[in-house]
Amino acid sequence: ALEKKVVKSKVGEKVSLPCCHKIPSSESLHNYRVYWQKNITDVVLAYSDGKKICNPERYKNRTEMDPQNLTLWISPMEILDNGTYQCVVQHNSVVVCDESVTLFVTADFSTPNITAEVSADSCESTEMVIICSSHGGFPKPKISGTLDNMSVQWNASWVSESSLSPYTVTGKLVHNVTKDINITCSVEYDGFAKSTTLLL
Predict the structure, then answer these.
(1) Which residues, in sequence order, are CB contacts of 1 under 8 Å at separation 6+?
(2) Which of 166, 171, 190 is nearest to 110 (CA)?
(3) Torsion angle of C-alpha atoms 37, 42, 45, 48, degrees rounded to 10
(4) Which residue ranges traverse the bilayer (predicted)?
(5) For the chain, which domains are there?
(6) Is 123 exposed, middle or buried (0-12, 13-18, 19+ CB in 10 A)?
């Protein structure tokens, strides 16, 4: 079965990653070597003969493993935990299973903040620059909006220090306002959304 196991979690939560092997109740961890590793090369947690043999600094005090079903718990989640994890189990030096789980981590964006400034004013209408921004979330978001329930395209820009850092997103819109309008800005990320509505 090549089905991809996928687990989703939010920053700060506790997540459990399933392993491909359960130790029978008649046996114990003592007869096994278990490696939980990330992106094939980084060991997260490893046990041999029932003892923890490796738990690097980044995962110390954030990880634990169930001694029977070998589930890996990570808490609290960080954006950097995003990635693919393998559970490799050896019994009498034979590999009994080696399977991966993909972990997607999301971080909540702030409620979008909408500001509007007049860029040009005439008797009939007012040209306004409307800016919507939101920050602190992950992964890279989409930004959408409506003006009086008609959908609008924001001119969007994103800032992030690295591919695994929180994003700041800013959308910009220039609009001629002739009457009061309702403007809504929504930031969507990994199935979640935050939105704000403003009356101009």
Answers:
(1) none
(2) 166
(3) 80
(4) none
(5) 5-105 (2.60.40.10), 113-199 (2.60.40.10)
(6) exposed
- Which amino acid makes up residue 164? L
Q: Find the Cα–Cα–Cα–Cα dihedral 48, 53, 56, 57, rounded to 10°.
A: 140
Neighbouring C-alpha atoms within 13 Å toward the C-beta of 125: 9
* Predicted model pTM: 0.85
DSSP-based three-state secondary structure for 183: strand
Contact of 35 with 43, CB cutoff 8 Å? yes
Q: What is the pLDDT along the chain (200 residues), one digit of tens a residue?
A: 456 799 999 999 999 999 999 999 999 999 999 999 998 889 999 999 999 999 999 999 999 999 999 999 999 999 999 999 999 999 988 999 999 999 999 999 999 999 999 888 887 788 999 999 999 999 999 999 999 989 999 999 999 999 999 999 999 999 988 888 999 999 999 999 999 999 98
What is the Cα–Cα distance from 11 to 171, expressed in whole angstroms? Answer: 25
Tokens of 198: 């403003």
Q: Lay out the sheet containing 182-189: strands in order across.
A: 150-152, 142-147, 182-189, 192-199
